[in-house]
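INTERNAL AUDIT FORM
Audit reference: QA-55
Scope: verify that the stored structure record matches its stored sequence.
Auditor: D.O.
Record contents follow.
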Amino acid sequence: MKRLLPLLVLLFMVACAEQEARRPISVRTSTFYKESAERNKKLLKEQQAYFNALFAKDSTNEYISSQSGFWYRYDVKSTSEGIFPEPDDMIKLTYNMKNHLLNTIYSKEEIGVVSYKVDKQQTLPQGLRDGIKLMKLGETVTFYLPSGLAYGHLGDKNRIGYNTPIVSTVTLLEIEKPKPN
């Protein structure tokens, strides 16, 4: 029994000792974020160069650079005064999705007519959400979106791969202003 008592005291002291926190297996440093930012800048420059080369080959259309970082061209342009979609407007539109090689990913027939509440729904890629606000009723516009304004690093987790630039032709069919309360 005398031998058992020191053993129990030792066991009690070890059990009551404060546990040291485990260190994380991987630590993200500021270098990781800097490298990621540099990769994204390089990717954007490559995609911009690709689109600029594509535009240079096409002398029949005028391509416009947006402040948001995408390009667009009018396929059907309204010459009359018209209203533009504003936040909270409910609009109806059709669109398609093609990759940068102009291969169809989703056709407008497959997508169908889409109802979209401007700036309230996140169902469209950021570039299209910004782009439709530049359109008038009845216009058809083709948007050229770098991957960061399309589906980004993840893609749509279906047919659109990661870091894929998108070309989308949108037709604005209807604009419904919100009813006042």
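Auditor finding: record pair retrieved intact. The domain at 62-181 is CATH 3.10.50.40 (Chitinase A; domain 3).
Action required: none
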